[in-house]
Amino acid sequence: MPIDRDTVRAVADLARLELPPGELERFEKQLGAILDTIAQLRELDVTSVEPMAHAGDFADVFRSDEPRPSIPTDEALANAPSRVGPYFDVPRILE
Prior knowledge:
With 95 residues, this protein is mainly α. It has a domain at 5-42: Orthogonal Bundle (Histone, subunit A), CATH 1.10.20. Helices cover 38% and strands 4% of the residues. It contains 3 helices and 2 strands; from the N terminus they run H-H-H-E-E. It has helices at 5-14, 21-42, 73-76; strands at residues 83-84, 87-88. The protein has a two-stranded antiparallel ribbon with strand order 1-2. The chain is flat, with a radius of gyration of 26 Å.
């Protein structure tokens, strides 16, 4: 589907992008190719395809939420550049 430069400018404005003139031509071709692909997908007969949320067959992928021991403090802070007791020492960002 052909797309003109004015449409590319309008889309760029909506996305709050500043595109130099050379980029306009490049995006004109790329957006046209994307719209062509979408047009091809619209021609497919998908009436027999069951709607799905994932392409793969996923069941429950979450582990059970059970308490377990965490990493020891000394091991967690081993590579910290600076620490104060059992805590990371970081620069103050708010006054």
